[in-house]
Amino acid sequence: MATTFTKSMARNIFYGGAVFFFLLFLALTMDTTYNRLPQRDNRQAITEQVALGKRVWEENDCIGCHTLLGEGAYFAPELGNVYKRRGPDFIKAWIKAQPSGVPGRRQMPQFNLSEEELDALVAFFKYVSEIDTNAWPPNIEG
Asked: What is the pTM of this model?
């Protein structure tokens, strides 16, 4: 066994380590993509109505004020679990009643959504609430 650490040994350790960690990265990516995500992302619940609800969400820039699964602005509440927290009737009534006019409170604009758009938005919130988020948000109020 050599008693000195040569450039050749250092190069071999570097290349061997780089290949090992690259293969480890590929294996973990493949495992996540093909084994773990299909069990957690609730893709089986995506319907045309859910897709319409997502379009309503995006076209009205809801994420400009709200967060959804931790993404978005923090001006208004997290809506990742709003379906479980409030239910479909409350969500629709809340959106229809905006702006609330309560002094001292932030006001959500009135978007004049149709019943079809409201139902789709509720379906989108239901879909999102059933994604396995590993217990995110940490409490029911977001």
From this structure: 0.79
